[in-house]
User: Which sequence fits this backbone?
């Protein structure tokens, strides 16, 4: 079970156990579950915010494409031979 972190490189089992023991000494056995729960909630909220942001970007891109298509369609209609210019009321 190796996980890669950008600035740390590859962490092996021994390194993970050492980090866990240091956390256990720093925070104690009673605080570790609370700490893990808090980190889990934070990660969940971050993931939710990221997904909402990506959805907004995607919707904005779709709206932009729709406006561009509408503009192109309007240009084709007004530039058609023998067509009367459209006036919007």
Assistant:
């Amino acid at each position: 079970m190796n996980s890669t972190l950008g600035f740390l490189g590859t962490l092996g089992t021994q390194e993970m156990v050492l980090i866990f023991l240091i956390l256990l000494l720093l925070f104690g056995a009673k605080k570790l579950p609370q700490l893990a729960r808090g980190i889990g909630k934070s990660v969940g909220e971050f993931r939710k915010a990221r997904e909402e942001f990506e959805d907004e970007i995607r919707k904005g891109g779709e709206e932009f494409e729709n406006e561009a298509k509408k503009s192109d369609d309007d240009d084709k209609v007004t530039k058609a031979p023998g067509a009367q210019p459209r006036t919007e009321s």
Notes: The first helix runs from residue 13 to 27. The radius of gyration is 28 Å. Strands lie at 3-5, 9-11. Residues 28-79 form one domain.
